[in-house]
Specification:
It holds the Pfam family Aldedh. Helices cover 38% and strands 17% of the residues. The chain has 758 residues and is an alpha/beta fold. Strands 5-6-4-3-7-9-10-8 form an 8-stranded mixed β-sheet, with helices on both faces. Strands 19-20-18-17-21-22 form a 6-stranded parallel β-sheet. The chain has a 4-stranded antiparallel β-sheet with strand order 25-12-11-26, with no helix packed on it. β1 and β2 (7-9) form a beta hairpin.
Amino acid sequence: IRCWSNIPFLTVPLSRAHGKSFAHRSELKHAKRIVVKLGSAVVTRGDECGLALGRLASIVEQVSMLQNQGREMMIVTSGAVAFGKQRLRHEILLSQSVRQALHSGQSQLKDMAIPVLEARACAAAGQSGLMALYEAMFTQYSICAAQILVTNLDFHDEQKRRNLNGTLHELLRMNIVPIINTNDAVVPPPEPNSDLQGVNVISVKDNDSLAARLAVEMKTDLLIVLSDVEGLFDSPPGSDDAKLIDIFYPGDQQSVTFGTKSRVGMGGMEAKVKAALWALQGGTSVVIANGTHPKISGHVITDIVEGKKVGTFFSEVKPAGPTVEQQAEMARAGGRTLAALQPEQRAEVIYRLADLLTDQREEILLANKKDLEEAENKGRLALPLLKRLSLSTSKLNSLAIGLRQIAASSQDSVGRVIRRTRIAKALELEQVTVPIGVLLVIFESRPDCLPQVSALAIASGNGLLLKGGKEAAHSNQILHHLTQEALSIHGVKDAVQLVNTREEVEDLCRLDKLIDLIIPRGSSQLVRNIQKAAKGIPVMGHSEGICHVFVDTDASVEKVTRIIRDSKCEYPAACNALETLLIHRDLLRTPLFDQIIDMLRVEQVRIHAGPKFASYLTFSPSEVKSLRTEYGDLECCIEVVDSVQEAVEHIHKYGSSHTDVIITENEQTAEFFLQHVDSACVFWNASTRFSDGYRFGLGAEVGISTSRIHARGPVGIEGLLTTKWLLRGDNHVVSDFSEHGTMKYLHESLPLPQRNTN
């Protein structure tokens, strides 16, 4: 037996074997039996008189949803005192006679004092109404609720504990949600000086310990403690340096400073942490989160159960490496040091990485072989993704060449002056290039992406967080090790970090205080998910690569089949591969059209007919389901258009603003197409596959952007830079430039310094 808060606890409660809590958030989705503890700040209104009905309804909806999924839900609730206070105040006001109110005068009526209400009386008046409210709300979801009132004494008597345990198990067996509360009507008087704005709310501290005791007693998988703060902070919330603790481990409480109590209730965060640690020791996982925030309270419980990064998760398993938040901070600090290096030093790092890719070729290919074997054995990757996963000697050689290109072109990227203006005499303004900050690059099945993106981040002086797919874990590990080895020659090893924790992509996208730009590299579904999940962080990329080739009536016979074959068949899984072939109507039933169809058949390309194309055929291929389809395989859509104008309109309606091509010998038609198609890349008589950073001479790319701001098309070093303004003056003040001042604005453009082109 051990004691805590003057209440004896059995370390291993009766009939409960010592369980094991979940080690990671991602495992919480397996929780079957869950206790949700609602603090007074969650249940009550801001004036502490009455219930927050909208918030309570949202909580009931979430609990009902989880209950209907087959989970066993229990609620430990506060609120009886607040509800009772509202009722008793109402009764007191009604009991005042009209004559007395009129006799006192209107001004005195406004100042009429409401007597201090005793908390136990409030609880007695509010318990039935609180339960009636819960019953009405749960009835909307065809769920029955049952009330259980307990006191501390009920846990001292072994028979009472057995009875309570049996009652709860029977309710859960019948699919009933137990609503548990301390019987505040009969508890001992509160401690002195605990009055809060006229009401002694005595349930919070008791309910923290009650929730922990019940969770362990009932062998609960998860205890969710909802309060009015986001979770546990490393210093009092609201202080300048306060940071939310994502995962809290036993023993960490010595490094935490606890702040003041909740706005209502007798407990504080310290009491919640003690209760949480006690429950964790008993085998129950715990999350403390905010149940009052209007933006998240509507889904906070379901988010926690889904394993999302909400609140503070208590775990007994401490990871070997740093948290992702710590990695982001290391990347920022390392990136700033990297940006401060001389351009030649950053180039040396990239040259060193290029050398390591060829020198350590055998080790890299051996790690990649492990990834390929595991993927094939599990059968979880389609053939196109397996091709992306595969590394080869030729791929590594190409990577090394690309990295040397980046190193050579990076000499004058960071700190380059792009504008100089003389504002006034001895007052000069410069606009210079600087790194964006910390980049988060999320990529699937492409380990060759890691050194490419790392080199671009190094050249541009950015810190980098990399999140690769688990299918390429071995390859990514060795490539990251080599990247850090190269960075070490100038002491900036931490600038590039590989996220190896079980961090969900959606959680990474919420780190808006730590990450400045997200760049997804992968499937259209991955990109869409990231764009949806990113909260306050810009996303650079494209969700789809629906690339078009338009064959004009003046197209060259020799060029057509070569360009189409290369665009579709050279690498069909690439985002810059042809997906829709637009044919001018006048080319139907011509030898050129037949050659195109014959070539596609030889290459085993499956053809889908667009609506207009199908109308010209007696026996057509399968009609396309959507003209906005990215096949990513040996498949394409053929559609017919009447003119170059109609081709442009089709591309604007169904394309993804990625890469679009015209094949024609008519220069006027070609220029019309080039000027009017609003895509990131528009080509004339060239394959769509040229839309690539390496082929553009950028050395490599972090991705292809179809966004309308910042960078567009293949994004190299320039796309990873922003600018800042430097103003150099000599005792200048704005008042000198007023109507009667002594200074005048000049705003003269000054010549730029000579760029280093070596």
